[in-house]
Specification:
This protein is of the alpha+beta class. It has five helices and eight strands; from the N terminus they run αααββββββαββα. α2 crosses α3.
């Protein structure tokens, strides 16, 4: 990565051995590894790969939680979280329509826009690893809001079109 500064920056160079000792003495390795894995997942996610600053990604990584869910686990569509699928499959289902989403996709945007008139039942169709992010963290990221709104509109149209036909 390349970073630019708008002002004067003084950089402190420390030997890698000193850094490694600091991490070991303070028992930070597991935290660094977990945060790094989450950061890399978010950075490569199509939803977040456009104009999201490293500062914003760091803020999101601090609050992201990875969960392991068995097949048939049902999610609460009203829990104010955005879910990002790391592995596995999740089904969004109404009485007559369903959508299967997989790794790299997301759900939970319905609660952000307050339009759950045709909210589907959401459950895993196989064992899945899914990240959870509080929706409030995403409200002040304009490009992300736009992408979530676009997906929201597509899903509302898809799931509500069954009543029209």
């Amino acid at each position: 990565h390349t970073y630019r500064s708008e002002g004067f920056v003084e950089v402190l160079s420390i030997p890698s051995k000193l850094y490694a000792d600091f991490v070991q003495v303070n028992n930070l390795y597991n935290d660094i590894e977990r945060l790094g894995e989450s950061w890399q997942f978010l950075e490569n996610l199509p939803l977040l790969n456009e104009a999201i600053s490293h500062l914003t990604l760091n803020k999101l990584v601090k609050h992201i939680v990875l969960g392991d869910y068995p097949a048939k686990h049902r999610f609460d569509a009203h829990d104010n979280c955005l879910y990002l699928i790391k592995s596995g499959k999740v089904e969004l289902r109404t009485e007559t329509r369903f959508e299967t989403i997989e790794a790299g996709d997301f759900f939970g945007e319905l609660c952000m826009f307050g339009d759950d008139q045709c909210a589907p039942v959401i459950q895993t169709s196989e064992a899945s690893e899914v990240y959870r992010l509080p929706i409030d963290l995403l409200k002040n990221i304009p490009i992300l809001n736009w992408k979530l709104f676009e997906r929201h509109q597509k899903r509302i149209h898809f799931f509500s079109s069954e009543q029209a036909g």
